[in-house]
Prior knowledge:
Elements: E1 3-8, E2 14-19, E3 40-44, E4 48-49, E5 59-65, E6 67-72, E7 78-83, E8 87-91, E9 98-103, E10 108-114, H1 120-124
Parallel strand pairs: 1-8
Antiparallel strand pairs: 1-2, 3-10, 4-9, 5-8, 5-10, 6-7, 6-9
Amino acid sequence: MTIxxxxxxPDGTTTVVPINFHEPKTDPALLIFPTGAGATVMTGRRxxxxxxxxxxxxxxxxxxxxCLDIEINKAAPQSVTLKAGDILLVLxxxxxxxRSRAHGPEGMSALLLPLGAANLPALSQLFRDWPTDLTI
Length: 136
């Protein structure tokens, strides 16, 4: 399982980076994301390409089936492929944004969990390499 963070930089660009969580002192298998109410299941047809956008809500996306490519940087596109079991923290509410492409033999399914803004400072404490240019 890989955890990625998709966020807007102060210069208006969007980036996506892998981050590692701190080992919990109580249970090494436990990682608690402070999510809000209103989970959604998202499905994508094979080879569905999304439009460029920023996220309307802060959230956590868990890939359940298939793959999801996240593309950033319109001028010089870069992408990362998330596969089943990967987690994406979606925090890019400003700037250039991103677009996604669902793919896989049977399409893609993901669970979207909203994050409350008040939870972000606590969330940042879970990760050893939280992006230094991410302002929360």
